[in-house]
Specification:
This protein is an alpha/beta fold and about 375 residues long. Helix content is about 35%, strand content about 15%. It has a seven-stranded mixed β-sheet. A three-stranded antiparallel β-sheet has the order 11-12-14, with helices on one face. It is globular, with a radius of gyration of 21 Å. About 45% of the residues are buried. The chain binds pyridoxal-5'-phosphate.
Length: about 375
């Protein structure tokens, strides 16, 4: 059944950073199926995760994600509870191994949190940092001090708060690359085979909060510390189809609908074209004059999260008030960096970005 949009509901332009906009046809499908899931006479919230309906849903979601990202059979795909930050702990527990050493690249608030959490489980070496540049650029690869005996190198492919993104994947030789892709996954094609492990919280570009998706090369399974909780042991969860305990079925189901919607949109090549157009439109208006400013170096500007400042910070309040009155929601920046931020995830339409750009120009004309 193809996903269609037929609602006349009032919907705002949603630029939230996460939880964030979901495609309207997905929400409508959820509503249609809620009381009677595929002629079972009950909701998917009310049935066993061991039954055939949930099994079929889980399989279909995984297969769609595998097609979208061209994930090879040597990778396991796990659907786990605990969000992305659960993985900040699960990764060192599963991968650090007996020597307990890993290299981390610090590029913003989320990688800093990942470093702090991993430090509870082993020796974390910060191999490079752009903290001195206020996370407005990325540390050049030639300045990274990687250890050959590190169990993995961790980086945050897109820093959701600072709006800094690795637009090319750095080389790490024999050491597996582990990446937090929470706010960039599915925004465009990604070379999964360059990574040992990818993980993402679902609530940015895939579905509801609380669910994390882990894509892990099977060579990395079986190294978990003995104290690793069973539910976060990758090998055990992989052997059990992510159903060692009751999985977050509803979140998994909605993520599956988002994957179906993405395939119907033409897959990740099509999303890349649309997302490139969206971010180009927004950066162009921010760069056009000194009234607005995006502080990130042009070589690493995020496609999905675009922070910006007003030259006169006294205008922030009227800016946000008038934006909300115009139906433009979620533009307040993260408290760590201030200013504004627009998140342009897949479910944010080109039309919403055009309305935002129109508002930015109009506000500048009136106050500039
Ligand atoms: C939102 C986010 C997280 C945290 O996700 P939770 O699911 O709330 O734990 C981690 N990393 C990045 C890059 C994020 O954007």
């Amino acid at each position: 059944m193809k996903m269609t949009e037929h609602s006349t509901q009032h919907r705002v332009h949603n630029f939230n950073a996460g939880p964030a906009a979901l495609p309207l046809p997905v929400l409508e499908r959820v509503k249609e199926e809620l009381l009677d899931y595929r002629s079972t006479g009950m909701s998917i919230l009310e049935m066993s995760h061991r039954g055939k309906e949930v099994g079929a849903m889980a399989q279909a979601a995984e297969q769609a994600l595998r097609r979208l990202l061209a994930i090879g059979p040597e990778y396991k795909v796990l659907f786990l509870a605990g969000g992305a930050q659960g993985q900040f702990a699960a990764i060192p527990m599963n991968l650090m191994g007996p020597h307990g050493r890993a290299d981390y690249i610090e590029t913003g608030s989320w990688s800093a949190k990942a470093i702090a959490e991993a430090g509870r489980y082993g020796h974390v070496h910060v191999a490079a940092s752009s903290r001195a540049e206020r996370f407005c650029s990325l540390p050049p690869r030639e300045h990274w001090s990687l250890h050959e005996d590190a169990a993995y190198v961790h980086l945050t492919l897109n820093e959701t708060i600072e709006g800094v993104e690795f637009l090319t994947i750095p080389e790490t030789g024999q050491v597996p690359l582990v990446a937090d892709v929470s706010s960039t996954i599915l925004s465009r094609p990604l070379a999964v085979d360059r990574f040992g492990l990818l993980y993402a919280g679902a609530q940015k570009n895939m579905g509801p909060a609380g669910l994390a998706i882990v894509i892990v090369h099977e060579e990395l399974l079986g190294r978990a510390a003995a104290t690793t909780p069973g539910i976060w042991n990758y090998a055990l969860q992989a052997a059990d189809g992510s159903m060692l305990n009751t999985p977050p079925v509803f979140a998994w189901y909605i993520a599956g609908l988002v994957f179906q919607w993405l395939e119907e949109q033409g897959g990740l090549e099509a999303m890349a074209r649309r997302n490139e157009q969206k971010k180009d439109l927004l950066y162009a208006v921010l760069d056009e004059a000194d009234f607005y400013r995006n502080p990130v170096h042009p070589t690493c500007r995020s496609w999905m999260n675009i922070p910006f400042l007003l030259a006169d910070s006294a205008l922030e309040k009227p800016f946000l008030q008038q934006a909300e009155a115009a139906g433009l929601m979620g533009l307040k920046g993260h408290r760590a960096v201030g200013g504004m931020r627009a998140s342009l995830y897949n479910a944010v339409s080109l039309e919403s970005v055009e309305v935002l750009v129109g508002f930015l120009k109009d506000f500048r004309a009136r106050y500039g």
